[in-house]
Amino acid sequence: MTALATLAPEFASVPDSTLPGPLQRYRDNAAKAIAGMAMPTRRTENWKYSSRHLQLDTALAAPLAATGTISTDIGDAYRIVIRNGVIAADESRLPAIDGIEIVRFADLDEVNAQKIVEQLDGALDTAALQFAPLNSARLQDGLLVRLASNARLDKPLFVLCQTLAEHSGSAHPRILVDAGSHSELTLVEQHESQGDAPALVNAVTELNLAAGAQVTYVRLSLDGTTVNHIGATGVRLAANARFDSHCVGFGGPLRRHDLQIRLQEAGAECRLNGVTVTLGEQHYDNHTVIEHVAPHCNSEETYRCIAAGKSHAIFNGRILIHRDAQKSVAEMSNKNLLLSSEAEIDTKPELEIYADDVKCAHGATIGQLDAESLFYLVSRGIGRTEAGTLLSMAFINELVQQIPVESVKDAIEQRLIDFIETTFQEV
Amino acid sequence: MADGNKPVKELIKREYEHGFVTEIEADTFEPGLNEDVIRRLSAIKNEPEFMLEWRLKAYRKWLEMTEPEWAHVHFPKIDYNSISYYSAPKSKADAPKSLDEVDPELLRTYEKLGIPLHERAKLAGVAVDAVFDSVSVTTTFKEQLTEAGVIFCPISEAVHKHPELIKKYLGTVVPTGDNYFAALNSAVFSDGSFVYIPEGVRCPLELSTYFRINAANTGQFERTLIIADKGSYVSYLEGCTAPMRDENQLHAAVVELVALDDAQIKYSTVQNWYPGDENGKGGIYNFVTKRGACIGRNSKISWTQVETGSAITWKYPSCVLRGENSVGEFYSVALTNNMQQADTGTKMIHLGKNTRSTIISKGISAGRSNNSYRGLVRFGPNAKGARNFTQCDSLLIGDQCGAHTFPYIESKNPSAIVEHEATTSKVSDEQLFLCRQRGIDPEQAVSMIVNGFCKEVFKELPMEFAVEATKLLEVSLEGSVG
After folding, report:
1. Residue B482 lies in a domain
2. Could you give the ipTM of this predicted complex?
């Protein structure tokens, strides 16, 4: 047996930044903690299927420094740009609403920075997130979105995480959302890239929802084909809070998203939707955890995935009902479409239940397009590519149509159609 | 349902009725494991050289392996050197040829267990190869089987009489280095059953073995090998009880099934080993590797199990579906009560074209127990048109227990279809209310609901086992309601 590979020390080198003292200390501690970290292998349960795609060349350790911009039309919405892990303040379009604070970590004073340090990692189960500490260790800047009680953001807030991969390197964007009681927010976290050099994006987003808060979270993973992406989203919900997520992911050399939900107080609920498409040699790995800590919480999860070419798609959904979480209702569904004989789909819907008065169910399927439906369409003069695209889109469109931001919905739908069309042309 | 009318308290107090120790002088090794122990064991059994080599190879592999920790169970570390690896009843030297020659003490043990051997064997038409600790004591109905050409004997005998079959098949389904416990078993297995059904023969009897762990501190390591040649059929029944002990006992068995073209093997288990007392003291550790290989075309292997015993169960009866059109089935009821822990399920490995598998798993947790289903369904790239349906349901009784599902589904073939469903719920108040309204007491009502919950599996069991299983669930659930 060969010695376990460890994370290259270059990754732990602390970047230059102008962070306030407490955040610098937080970062330096994290850097010390990850020194010599063992890389996940096939034997690491939560990287079982993905470790073979995890090839972090030391060239990826360098910080990305390219300048430039990616012009993205987001329509009528607020926006923040995080370019290569650093907030490009001059490109922001921010609301001027009482009770809504959107600031860079770098602009915080010592006192507030200390408060943020105490909050950071609070919404994450770091034991299951091997790369979240790396994000902390490479913290250059961060985005804080804070909503006071009853504050309501009238338009969606787009956080554009742009990666300019003109040379190899990595970016580590960090977002912290603090939604006060009964506040409302729609957050679109969009990852996009430009350039052909191999790059690594290691993003961490934390959302804390106070009682009655409502957050809609749209996460779009649209990075280019040379970008490795490891992302984590941690969410904590207090009483009667509601969290809706819509995660859409396109495959890449390494694509990983961990979504951890903790329903901490009674009445909290979440609905998680996810769509993933992969082709060629691409990869995508979705790991979700929904923890029912308190009684009377509901969760609903629907993930659909299409894999074509020689690609590899993974879903791992875990529902954990704690001992006292009586009257929990949890439903999970994962359906997968395998379009090619060289593609692979691995799915693992888990239930871990320690309370008796609960209703939990999960379902998972893997299959192919229905030959009869395909024949029906083709016999009516619709080309194979078109028919295949039509049926594949029908498989995921139900979820796409639920995306509440109109402009995103239309753009993603078109993007999915184009993507799926190429998979049928390949054949 | 006679027990249903007893006051609940009285039932709670009832202890494991099969807990007693038969006092027979036993030939027991000093605790400890090393190559010498294996050599001695092999020598006692008068094994040919190839078996000793095979054991030693397994032992060396075992030394390099580490104990698996992924299962959802917790137990103190096992000291493998504090276990004695061989124990046999004294009377083995002059092996009995008929029941009259069997040690009367032994016979009385069976009677206490409710298995009057000769009577039961004759009445039920079942040939019983009773494994008492490590050496098979007696075998009935041998002649009838011999007539059909069926070989049904202790594996230690098969090593001598049919070395060609042993050499050809032993370790082909579960290789010596397959996993930690299989390697341990391969190194030190004491005895077990061997079955060979020749081509085109439908076994005239349902074969059955009663295992029983006896002498204190003796891990029992059975090894079962069943080979169904082309076009044959066999139904094999396995049932277990063990005496009450305070010290944990390790049981690491290996069962291998081989089905050639058009052959069918039906393997049914009712397992009721001592689960430990209500505080989790004592009980059997049941770490078993069971696997069947459908090598031939149109072959079929079906596992049915009812698990109510053992402190810890770690068991995944699996099917490797290699032959075209082969079928794998897994029907399971696993019940845990008090402090029991079960991590059980199945693996269906689809390699051949048009292979099909069905998994029906029913888990019932009561008391402070934890019951996990862990399954793997894998479609290889050549498993064209393969199909799997999985349903695993869990029922929770009481708010201190846990029910878990860990299904792994891996597909590399677009024409394969897999469906997986799982639900978890409790005995609903409406159902209970309906029963009580009609004058059925709570204990009986729960028993009825649980039986209904398990019906899909029970109907797969051979008749006499189905009756026993129903009874077993009732007894195992006693005291968990009210």
Report:
1. no
2. 0.84
